[in-house]
């Protein structure tokens, strides 16, 4: 069976996913697309070089008879509306992060999915599908460093055009999700510490930031978020355990000795760092969706990430340690 997909939002990542669904993966094809206007959707269809119909609105895509499942890759503030509409139409929906821009919005999705009685929603936390994070998790699960005590993460973008608190909602949300998955733990509090702002940052962005999360099992996690580090796209995670220390493996590059220096290359964009993870994430989603099964990060995971983002935003403004309090996890997501 070939899963026929409708995509909403044909910007940077929308086109990436259109390409991978039609040209790289098996068992799926994009048959419908929308953006803010018909022309934008048609231009993306032409650029990617696929046979698909352009629609004027995301709701038309969701309700199109030829669409079996929906992929939402539009701007974050539009996600809630489209995910709720897909649930209403009874169609499986893959939504890029963030699931919604507030925890309340995520809870509305959780409630709608439970009311529908079907597991329909997956959130695009692709790091769970990354070979490096999967290796780190396998080592942790087999007791390779004993109980983990401290995690030190860094999330560095060469340049990111964010303002205000968007970094905590749109960027660190990946750490908020992947560290819960890796450690099988939940957060209890958040603190955000601001060093002086880099002189290379424009606008009102406080960059870099240091986030400190404490977990239910007593771990401390630090996340350095640096959205404009200039030198590359660099994702780090060091786990300090009772009997050893483990590091997130880094993508291989050709070691170069030249001009009295010994060096390795650094990837410069998330698209290249996580290209394999996106492929695995979507192939597994397509396969599970075709079988009517649930797979991968759920709407509940989207909700927990949003609660964590909200607590970090509050902590940045209050400069206090803020509690992270979750609603009770519904049996539907256990
Ligand atoms: N998982 C990841 O690593 C990752 C990477 C990049 C982006 N994202 C997420 O994907 C989403 C899109 O990001 P992007 O980088 O492609 O942004 P983008 O600005 O390049 O594209 C967003 C597109 O959505 C369209 N859009 C806005 N409102 C719409 C509406 N009502 N209906 C249909 N289309 C609409 C815009 O016109 C634009 O073409 C964001 O939520 C972002 O956080 C995730
Ligand atoms: O939307 C992107 C994407 O989610 C990347 O994975 C992240 O590193 C960036 O900070 C963010 O802007």
Describe this structure in words.
With 334 residues, this protein is α/β, with parallel strands linked by helices. It has two domains: 3-127 and 276-298, NAD(P)-binding Rossmann-like Domain (Rossmann fold), CATH 3.40.50.720; 130-269 and 306-323, Dihydrodipicolinate Reductase, domain 2 (2-Layer Sandwich). Helix content is 37%, strand content 23%. The chain has eleven helices and 15 strands. It has helices at 12-24, 38-48, 58-63, 79-89, 103-116, 131-141, 166-171, 173-183, 270-273, 275-290, 299-318, and strands at residues 3-8, 28-34, 53-55, 69-72, 93-96, 121-124, 148-156, 187-193, 209-215, 220-226, 234-241, 245-247, 256-258, 261-263, 322-323. It has a seven-stranded mixed sheet with strand order 12-11-7-10-9-8-15. Strands 3-2-1-4-5-6 form a six-stranded parallel sheet, sandwiched between helices. Helix 5 packs antiparallel against helix 11. The protein is globular. The mean pLDDT is 97. The structure holds nicotinamide-adenine-dinucleotide and 1,2,3,4,5,6-hexahydroxy-cyclohexane. Residues 157, 160, 170-171, 174, 270 line the site of 1,2,3,4,5,6-hexahydroxy-cyclohexane (INS). Nicotinamide-adenine-dinucleotide (NAD) binds next to helix 1. GO terms for molecular function: inositol 2-dehydrogenase (NAD+) activity; nucleotide binding.
Secondary structure elements and pairings:
Blueprint: E1 3-8, H1 12-24, E2 28-34, H2 38-48, E3 53-55, H3 58-63, E4 69-72, H4 79-89, E5 93-96, H5 103-116, E6 121-124, H6 131-141, E7 148-156, H7 166-171, H8 173-183, E8 187-193, E9 209-215, E10 220-226, E11 234-241, E12 245-247, E13 256-258, E14 261-263, H9 270-273, H10 275-290, H11 299-318, E15 322-323
Parallel strand pairs: 1-2, 1-4, 2-3, 4-5, 5-6, 7-10
Antiparallel strand pairs: 7-11, 8-9, 8-15, 9-10, 11-12, 13-14
Helix pairs in contact: 1-10, 4-5, 5-11, 8-11
Bound molecules: nicotinamide-adenine-dinucleotide and 1,2,3,4,5,6-hexahydroxy-cyclohexane.
Nicotinamide-adenine-dinucleotide binds at residues 8-14, 34-36, 40, 58, 73-76, 78, 96-97, 124, 126, 170, 270.
């Amino acid at each position: 069976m070939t899963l026929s997909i409708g995509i909403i939002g044909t910007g940077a990542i929308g086109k990436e996913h259109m390409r991978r669904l039609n040209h790289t993966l098996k068992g799926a094809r994009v048959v419908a697309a929308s953006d803010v206007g018909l022309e934008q959707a048609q231009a993306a269809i032409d650029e990617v070089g696929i046979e698909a119909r352009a629609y004027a609105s995301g709701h038309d895509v969701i309700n199109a008879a030829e669409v079996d499942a929906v992929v939402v890759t539009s701007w974050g503030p539009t996600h809630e509306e489209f995910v709720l509409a897909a649930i209403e139409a009874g169609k499986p929906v893959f939504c890029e992060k963030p699931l919604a821009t507030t925890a309340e919005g995520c809870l509305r999705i959780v409630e709608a999915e439970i009311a529908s009685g079907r597991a329909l929603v997956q959130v695009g936390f692709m790091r769970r599908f990354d070979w490096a994070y999967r290796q780190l998790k396998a080592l942790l699960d087999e007791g390779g460093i004993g109980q983990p005590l401290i995690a030190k993460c860094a999330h560095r973008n060469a340049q990111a055009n964010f303002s205000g608190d968007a970094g905590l909602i749109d960027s660190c949300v990946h750490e908020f999700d992947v560290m819960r998955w890796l450690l099988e733990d939940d957060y209890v509090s958040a603190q955000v510490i601001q060093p002086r702002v880099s002189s290379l940052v424009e606008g009102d962005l406080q960059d870099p930031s240091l986030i400190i999360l404490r977990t239910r099992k007593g771990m401390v996690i630090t996340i350095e978020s640096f959205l404009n580090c200039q030198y590359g796209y660099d994702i780090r995670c060091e786990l300090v355990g009772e009997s050893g220390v483990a590091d997130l493996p880094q993508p291989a590059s050709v070691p170069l000795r030249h001009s009295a220096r010994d060096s390795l290359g650094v990837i410069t964009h998330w698209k290249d760092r996580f290209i394999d993870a996106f492929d695995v994430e979507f192939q597994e989603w397509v396969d599970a969706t075709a079988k009517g099964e649930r797979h991968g990060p759920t709407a509940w995971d989207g909700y927990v990430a949003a609660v964590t983002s909200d607590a970090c935003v509050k902590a940045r403004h209050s400069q206090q340690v803020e509690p992270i309090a979750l609603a009770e996890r519904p049996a539907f997501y256990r």
